[in-house]
Structures are given as structure tokens and as C-alpha cells.
Specification:
The chain has 206 residues and is of the alpha+beta class. 21% of the residues lie in helices and 22% in strands. The chain contains six helices and eleven strands. A hairpin with a 2-residue loop joins β1 and β2. The longest helix has 13 residues. The chain starts with a strand and ends with a helix.
Length: 206
């Protein structure tokens, strides 16, 4: 299923379950702007949605994911789970650094089978409350951007930041309707809202 959101000439298309987003660009010649051994055989907590079946391990998840799969006691866990807002410290039961659509599918399928809540984070600019359970999908490695000059459509992976879109659009004489900071993640901005320097002339991109 494809959902299309539009404000004036700005378009955002979101494909459920996929890793890409698409946004229409405005014409302009000046841009505006592996799982640790400590977790093997370990069971999850015994309350809420994170209850696991007895003796369930991460082996099947680790085998299916090409990116890192980290538990709370693993080296690199805090860095993988943290976002831009360091005042909010996330402590999910497991964080998965996805590198492909297949990784996303495997992580969500695993969480569903074992009744774990799933959260998604790209840059963590919009974090307000800490994540304390379940599975966190980190999309920061999904950062490619491609531009279709004829249609003025940018196809953007889930972890891309606006700076990458600005750089990719500039050679085509195009500019995205971004927020005031190009370090913000594209997907979070488009879905969560924000104000940018082209807001008055071109409307808001979310």
C-alpha cells in the first residue's frame, strides 16, 4: 500500500514496510539550506509485551540480520541505541542496526513472533521519553538518496539526513523543502513536522 501526502506542490509518498520515502523537490539553483555472547540463552523480563517463551534465544535473529544485533550488556549497545538528544537514554532489550529491507523484515517478524514492542530510530532528534523494553530498530545505516530530475522526486532511505538530500539535489538545480537544520533526519522531519526557511514561499514539507 502506498500513502501520498501533499501540501501544494510538495509530495511525500510512504510505502508501508519499505525502507524508502519519496519527496518532491522545488526548482532552485541555490539549495536552501553481532549479538554478544552474554545474551545467548538469556530470557527477557517477565512482564508486559516483552514476555518471551521459555529458553528463547537471539540465535535466529542474529543469523537473519546482516547489521549489529546488540543486548544491554554488549559492547556498542549504548552508542547504537543513543540518538541526538543525549538527555534521553534508551535501554531497549535489544537494538538492531538494520542495513537493508530484509533486516527490517527479519527484526519486525522476530519481535512479532515473540510479542515484543517495536520502536524505530534514525537520528533521535525527536526523542522525548526513554525506551526501556522491546526491540529498537536503528535505521541510521539506511542513508542513500537518489534524484529523478524529470519528476523532481527524491527517493530517500529511512536513515538519510537532509544534508545528503541537499547535496544530491543541487547538481540538478533543485532544493528540498527542509527544516532549519540539515542534520535532522528526513523521515522524522516529514512525519513529525518542522519549520524551515522555504516555509513561506513553498509551504511545509510535512
Amino acid at each position: 500500500m502506498t500513502a501520498t501526502l501533499g501540501i501544494d506542490d510538495a509530495l511525500l509518498e510512504r510505502r508501508d514496510g519499505a525502507q524508502h520515502q519519496q519527496t518532491r523537490l522545488e526548482g532552485s539553483h541555490t539549495p536552501s539550506v553481532g549479538i554478544g555472547g552474554a545474551l545467548r540463552g538469556q530470557r527477557f523480563g517477565q512482564s508486559g509485551l516483552s514476555v518471551m517463551f521459555a529458553n528463547m534465544t537471539f540465535d535466529e535473529l542474529h543469523a537473519a540480520i546482516s547489521g549489529p544485533v546488540l543486548g544491554r550488556d554488549d559492547a556498542g549497545f549504548e552508542q547504537e541505541a543513543s540518538g541526538f538528544n543525549l538527555a534521553v537514554q534508551h535501554r531497549p532489550e535489544v537494538v538492531v542496526g538494520v542495513t537493508s529491507t530484509d533486516d527490517v523484515v527479519a527484526a519486525v517478524r522476530f519481535a512479532r513472533q515473540h510479542r515484543m514492542p517495536v520502536r524505530v530510530q534514525a537520528t533521535g532528534h525527536g526523542a522525548h521519553l526513554p525506551i526501556t523494553d522491546g526491540l529498537l530498530v536503528s535505521t541510521s545505516r539506511l542513508d542513500s538518496v537518489s534524484i529523478d530530475e524529470a519528476s523532481r522526486i527524491a527517493t530517500i532511505q529511512a536513515g538519510a539526513r537532509w544534508a545528503a538530500v541537499v547535496s544530491a539535489a543541487d547538481p540538478h538545480g533543485l532544493a528540498p523543502v527542509t527544516g532549519s537544520s540539515t542534520n535532522v533526519g528526513v523521515v522524522g522531519y516529514l512525519l513529525g513536522g518542522g519549520l524551515g526557511p522555504l516555509g513561506r514561499s513553498h509551504g511545509f514539507s510535512s
